[in-house]
Amino acid sequence: MAPSSLILLLGVLGALGLGDPGPLEDVVIDRYYIPKICLREVQMGDFIRYHYNGTFKDGKKFDSSYDRGATVAGVVGVGRLITGMDRGLQGMCVNERRHLIVPPHLGYGSIGVAGLIPPDATLYFDVVMLDIWNKNDKLQITTLSKPERCNRTVENSDFVRYHYNGTLLDGTPFDSSYSKNSTYDTYVGTGWLIKGMDQGLLGMCAGEKRSIIIPPFLAYGEKGYGTVIPPQASLVFSVLLVDFHNPKDGIFLEHLEVPESCKRRAVTGDFVRYHYNGTLMDGTLFDSSYSRNQTYNTYIGKGYIIPGMDQGLQGVCMGERRRVVVPPHLAYGENGAGNKIPGSAVLVFDVHIIDFHNPVDPVEIETVYRPEGCNVTTRDRDFVRYHYNCSLLDGTKLFSSHDYEKPQEVTLGTNKVIEGLNSGLLNMCAGERRVIIVPPHLGHGESGARGVPGSAVLRFEVELISMEEGVPEGYLFIWHGEPPASLYEQMDLNKDGEIPAEEFSTFIKTQVAEGKGRLMPSSDPEKVIADMFRNQDRNQDGKITAEELKLKSDEDQEKIHEEL
């Protein structure tokens, strides 16, 4: 008879040896190692796995599971073991070690085992218990930690990504996803996993940790698995659920902060500037616009970004904070992206909308205050003085005229300010206050300017202080009526046949003072007059002759004839 069968002989063989009870009446048990934690003790009817060495009193070995390289598995108390072993294993804990002395009448009796165990032999066993289970056992699930927020739990047909350490019940490790530096990714409830794991993952939250103890009949059963999982082994998995999703999932939106005043929401075709933190479901940061100190700028609904974000940014308000949870099939799919986004990863974006616009947006003008009896309003070529505060739509201050000693001055329609602000300053009364929203294509465009981010929508708070009527484009001075018939003679104040700069300046100032004409508005009228003189002094000799003096209307007429 093979040694492996010695202690598995049926009780009939033991019963044949009951004639001589020997010096011992019962099994002698020495519990020489008892683990501090004992969750379960062997009872009648339990299925067990253990290792042992079997010797005689003189120390001679007659059998050993270690020598065979395989544990012994069997059921306690049903007559499949010799009576002494059945009794000696009762009450053992996993990892407990015992010395057992089995008298002949509880072993192989007066017959023994031919060639291996002599008649009336007392047997000595050194046993370590490795596994205990019962056919009535159920899955044992212990929640080790769980996130405070859990909006959803795992259901059948979900795709899960999790880390695990797998051990036998005695603590022997057999596998770990951590050692592979990769999560285990699979569907739940579709037969891809052992039954116990299929059941043990149900109801988990992303970020939850569980201990799952699986009896053999819900694991690898009688066959075991390769060389690492013995037959009839209970398995212990320590599981961390990283994330999960369902192939039918859409995006999940959480509105963290929505401004009370939301006049407009983003739609397909809008260009959005936003900050974001991108994390995996376990909180691992994979990207952040804040770390670059620069917003992410893109059109939405046009395919420039992952489909989940294209959908997730629809309907945002300026200033809104929103969380967008994107399943992998609407993100980077099974392949992931780079070394920071694993395959099949669910992505979480915490988004702060800075501003958005549409390439066809006009300037938005809101009149905050308009004086009564406002009959005269600004036009192109008018010279205006105004105070302003300029900011981004998130409230970030950029510039303010109040930081300087005097208001801003500009001639409208001369490309001295951005187009959108120029439009916003038209048709204003002195004393009027406005809020002017300028989209980037009427502001500083995609490139931005010093202190102004690219593609930024600008908000101006404007107060018009004063205005002066302008002159047509290309003119520095215009007459309110017909110019004098003998203009040169009147301009030549000392009648010496030439007009130096001083005479010219005195004449122009007199015309303005008498209301006969007006200069192009400017903060420096002397410079305007000097420019006029320089234009008339054709040969730049410091004086104007009769031949040199020409009205601009006459010059324009001469140009027409030259073209003809």
From TrEMBL:
<dbReference type="InterPro" id="IPR051989">
    <property type="entry name" value="FKBP-like_isomerase"/>
</dbReference>
<feature type="domain" description="EF-hand">
    <location>
        <begin position="524"/>
        <end position="559"/>
    </location>
</feature>
<feature type="domain" description="PPIase FKBP-type">
    <location>
        <begin position="157"/>
        <end position="245"/>
    </location>
</feature>
<keyword id="KW-0732">Signal</keyword>
<dbReference type="Pfam" id="PF00254">
    <property type="entry name" value="FKBP_C"/>
</dbReference>
<feature type="signal peptide">
    <location>
        <begin position="1"/>
        <end position="17"/>
    </location>
</feature>
<feature type="domain" description="PPIase FKBP-type">
    <location>
        <begin position="269"/>
        <end position="357"/>
    </location>
</feature>
<keyword id="KW-0413">Isomerase</keyword>
<keyword id="KW-0479">Metal-binding</keyword>
<keyword id="KW-0697">Rotamase</keyword>
<dbReference type="InterPro" id="IPR046357">
    <property type="entry name" value="PPIase_dom_sf"/>
</dbReference>
<dbReference type="InterPro" id="IPR001179">
    <property type="entry name" value="PPIase_FKBP_dom"/>
</dbReference>
<comment type="function">
    <text>PPIases accelerate the folding of proteins during protein synthesis.</text>
</comment>
<dbReference type="InterPro" id="IPR011992">
    <property type="entry name" value="EF-hand-dom_pair"/>
</dbReference>
<dbReference type="InterPro" id="IPR002048">
    <property type="entry name" value="EF_hand_dom"/>
</dbReference>
<dbReference type="Pfam" id="PF13202">
    <property type="entry name" value="EF-hand_5"/>
</dbReference>
<dbReference type="GO" id="GO:0003755">
    <property type="term" value="F:peptidyl-prolyl cis-trans isomerase activity"/>
</dbReference>
<dbReference type="GO" id="GO:0005783">
    <property type="term" value="C:endoplasmic reticulum"/>
</dbReference>
<keyword id="KW-0325">Glycoprotein</keyword>
<dbReference type="GO" id="GO:0005509">
    <property type="term" value="F:calcium ion binding"/>
</dbReference>
<feature type="domain" description="EF-hand">
    <location>
        <begin position="487"/>
        <end position="514"/>
    </location>
</feature>
<feature type="region of interest" description="Disordered">
    <location>
        <begin position="534"/>
        <end position="564"/>
    </location>
</feature>
<feature type="domain" description="PPIase FKBP-type">
    <location>
        <begin position="381"/>
        <end position="468"/>
    </location>
</feature>
<keyword id="KW-0106">Calcium</keyword>
<feature type="domain" description="PPIase FKBP-type">
    <location>
        <begin position="45"/>
        <end position="133"/>
    </location>
</feature>
<keyword id="KW-0256">Endoplasmic reticulum</keyword>
<keyword id="KW-0677">Repeat</keyword>
<protein>
    <recommendedName>
        <fullName>peptidylprolyl isomerase</fullName>
        <ecNumber>5.2.1.8</ecNumber>
    </recommendedName>
</protein>
<dbReference type="InterPro" id="IPR018247">
    <property type="entry name" value="EF_Hand_1_Ca_BS"/>
</dbReference>
